[in-house]
Design brief:
The protein is 51% helix and 19% strand. The mean pLDDT is 85. α1 packs antiparallel against α5, α6 (312-343) packs across α11 (468-478) and α9 (393-409) packs antiparallel against α11 (468-478). With 507 residues, it is an alpha+beta fold. A hairpin with a 5-residue loop joins β6 and β7. The strands form 4 sheets. Strands 2-1-5-4-3 form a 5-stranded antiparallel sheet, with helices on both faces. It binds adenosine-5'-diphosphate.
Length: 507
């Protein structure tokens, strides 16, 4: 059936990835809807506000102009000669920039003469208006474009008079637009555009603000528009976009965390599975390792016991084999026991000043027989001036023995072993060098892991438990030292132990 990791990944997919995808899709859809509806709402609100503001402007303007016209009508009713009264009146009505009063036959009643080229502008308009456009007194009309305003007044005696005036743009801006629009509480920018689309007034600099909408004024400012702008970055769409980015970012982080979590769990599970496999290999390897020397010992023991070996030389050889295999057995059992003590945190080291050369030679001695039997060329090069080094001699001896054992075990056609010891940069450096099979670079880190054995057919044939180098590393690290390997397939290996000369103080 399914492996635990396959089950796990299916579960992770169903339980985490699927809901996360649904949440992402729903989140995305609702944000899009929210974006659309907030945009709509925003435009509606802006339109309402613009319409109200435009009405208010027109009301103010009409009010201001009505007041002037009322006073003008009052002046025409009075006895005083109109010219002076109108002069007075205009002096207090800054909104009216220029005013002409024209009688029903087109004669200029005020002022005495047309100014600048006004006759050409006002004349035709007044004539047009007089053709019966203003039947009722007080009706006002604004002429688009040049903003000439016409109003019908009545002179004393009932004679109609046309009042034609133009507005003062500065006063219009200051007293009408500024007072009406400047006070509006809003984050948006309101501007007034004239008939040619020029900005006559704006509540704040428009700059790169975004145009939202415009509404038209009605009769007091025909063809003029009130425009609404949104400062860049403040539009609801941008706010929503920020939310979308935030949501996407947060969701991305969430997904990344989930994926990282799944990947870590997956890796742990694979490691666990690998460990389980390595452990069961270990049990098989150790059992095999124990059985082989035992059966050799038994076979030679039985042969000797039967007294069939009469040749003294042969007998000695059998005894040596038995001794060698028992040593092998002891080493193996020591390795396994030490390894289990280290794993359980129960291993202790007895640190004493130790002479290095005797330790190296003593360790090598245990291998004299296999080295000689297999025709190894052995080189020992120990610097003569080595000081005693504080260490657990048994443990370091065991580490060395493991390295030497490996050098013999993984030898190839060229059989050579060298052990080299010297002090380098204040540390004792012991190298065990062989000309054996060598190890691929990709395996260099792994071989120091517990139970790990290089999965080569040529290695598989050699006995081993996979804890030898793990033990070496434990031992040197307990001495605050390290172990490294330089090796390439077919070129042999160099394992280097580095130990501090004196035990450094803890911490
Ligand atoms: P083992 O009991 O398998 O020897 P070790 O921990 O001592 O376990 O070594 C781990 C693996 O490293 C070995 O299986 C072997 O493949 C590789 N190895 C160790 N020493 C050598 C060496 N001197 N030459 C080639 N391969 C080596």
């Amino acid at each position: 059936m399914w492996s635990p990791s396959a089950r796990f990944s299916t579960l992770a997919l169903v339980a985490i990835v699927a809901p996360a995808t649904i949440v992402a899709v729903l989140g995305w859809v609702s944000i899009r809807q929210w974006e659309a509806s907030s945009e709509l709402l925003y435009r509606e609100q802006a339109r309402d506000m613009a319409t109200m503001a435009a009405e208010k402007v027109e009301m103010m303007l009409r009010h201001a102009e009505d007041a002037v016209l009322d006073r003008l009508q009052g002046a025409l009713d009075a006895d005083t000669p109109p010219a002076r009264a109108v002069d007075d009146l205009l002096a207090h009505a800054p909104l009216v920039r220029r005013l002409y009063l024209i009688g029903q036959r087109g004669e200029l009643l005020y002022p005495r003469a047309w100014k600048d080229g006004d006759a050409a502008i006002f004349g035709p308009l007044v004539a047009e208006a007089a053709k019966g456009k203003f039947e009722r007194s007080g009706k006002r009309e604004v002429v688009a474009g040049n903003q000439v305003c016409l109003a019908m007044l009545v002179r004393r005696g009932g004679e109609p008079v046309v009042a034609a005036f133009i507005r003062d743009p500065d006063t219009l801006r200051r007293e009408i637009f500024e007072t009406t629009l400047g006070a509006l509480e809003s984050s948006i920018i309101i501007a007034v555009l004239d008939h040619a689309g020029r900005t006559v007034y704006s509540r704040a600099p428009i700059g790169d603000a975004q145009h939202v909408l415009s509404v038209r004024f009605r009769e007091t400012l025909p063809d003029w528009r009130l425009a609404v702008y949104q400062a860049s970055g403040a539009a609801p769409r941008q706010a929503v976009r920020r939310q979308v980015m935030l949501f996407t970012g947060a969701f991305g982080v969430l997904v990344a965390v989930i994926v990282a979590g799944i990947a870590t769990t997956w890796r742990l599970m694979r490691r666990e599975t690998e460990m389980t496999r390595l452990k069961s290999d270990f049990v098989a390897n150790v059992s095999h390792d124990l059985k082989t020397p035992l059966s050799v010992i038994r076979m030679f023991g039985e042969t000797l016991e039967m007294g069939r070996v009469t040749d003294e030389g042969k007998r000695r050889e059998y005894y040596r084999v038995i001794t060698r295999e028992s040593e092998r057995l002891s080493r193996l059992i020591d390795n396994v026991l030490d390894f289990s003590r280290i794993e359980g945190g129960r291993q202790t080291y007895e640190m004493t000043p130790t002479a290095v050369e005797p330790l190296i030679r003593g360790t090598l001695e245990a291998f004299t027989y296999p080295l000689a039997q297999q025709g190894f060329k052995v080189d020992v090069d120990v610097a003569s001036d080595l000081p005693d080094v504080v260490m657990d001699a048994d443990a370091v001896g065991q580490a060395l023995a493991n390295l030497i054992d490996n050098a013999i075990k993984y030898s190839g056609d060229e059989r050579a072993l060298a052990v080299d010891a010297r002090v380098v940069e204040g540390r004792l450096v012991i190298a065990v060098i062989d000309r054996g099979l060598g190890i691929a670079t990709t395996e260099h880190a792994k071989i120091f892991e517990k139970f790990y054995r290089v999965g080569r057919s040529d290695t598989q044939g050699r006995r081993g438990s996979g804890v030898g180098l793990a033990l070496v590393r434990h031992i040197v690290e307990a001495h605050r030292g390290d172990v490294t390997v330089e090796s390439a397939p077919g070129e042999g290996s160099r394992f280097t132990l580095r130990l501090p000369l004196a035990r450094e103080r803890d911490g």
